[in-house]
Amino acid sequence: MAMVSMPFSVRSLNSHNLRPTKRYSGMAFATSRKEAVSVGVKITTQGEGHLPKLVLTSDGGSEAEIYLFGGCITSWKVPSGRDLLFVRPDAVFDKTKPISGGIPHCFPQFGPGKMQQHGFARNMDWSLVESENVEGNPIVTLELKDGPYSRAMWDFSFQARYKVILSTKSISTELIVTNTDNKPFSFSSALHTYFRASISGVSVKGLKGCKTLNKDPDPKNPIEGREERDAIIFPGFVDCIYLDAPKELHLHNGLGDVISIENTNWSDAVLWNPHLQMEACYKDFVCVENAKSFPAT
């Protein structure tokens, strides 16, 4: 049995506050059958399209929403009430397609390939298996297992567990993929994170020196290069993979927020903004994604 763990954390910062994120653990369990499954955690069927969602609230006043369909975090509000994530206006909540926005899963395939775009994890119902509250911070763990839908595309037995920890100034996740099959498999993956932004003022810092695979103009034949800029801006269409990315990036969202994006075991970063391909909303978001863009075993 093989297992891969990939933690990820984002924090709302000001320029003088670069403290490490605290990590918590505990063993309190609850079931998803109750409306309030743990202190600071509620499950409701009053999400968009009447889909079930979790609402997490920390003692510090931050809040997050997670839909069980796709295991998708759709909202992360800091104590001031500002939502730092973005859901596209064309998003649908009827299970006919993945939720377009927030933090969708790309698993077990990132991008195009042998199966549908970005795999199947964002198209399936995840289940709530654990819930707890540690020092005022709600923690939930979602689970996805193989079934007929996934096996029709990818004939392996697996277990994916996704832990989400909400604290006052940060939201942290950990994705653990376990091979429960009797044969090995490999996969690629990403957290396709949409951040609320004013694109004309956006910059991303921390990627200087990284090898790049630029998917503009031809995503099927990316151009290799090396990032030379201290701060990456978005004057037009951007779709670029940064290989062997550092463990921390800083996103200036153009709205006055500085967001620290930290990761462990996500080897790459992806920057994306569709520009005029999504004329109705491209000015309002930017994707800064943690990825393992080439297969992990």
UniProtKB/TrEMBL annotation:
Coiled coil: none annotated. Keywords: Isomerase. This is glucose-6-phosphate 1-epimerase. It comes from Corchorus olitorius. One of its GO terms (biological process) is carbohydrate metabolic process. GO terms for molecular function: carbohydrate binding; glucose-6-phosphate 1-epimerase activity. GO terms for cellular component: cytoplasm. Belongs to the glucose-6-phosphate 1-epimerase family. Pfam families: Aldose_epim (PF01263). Its EC number is 5.1.3.15. The keyword Isomerase applies. It comes from the Eukaryota. It catalyses: alpha-D-glucose 6-phosphate = beta-D-glucose 6-phosphate.
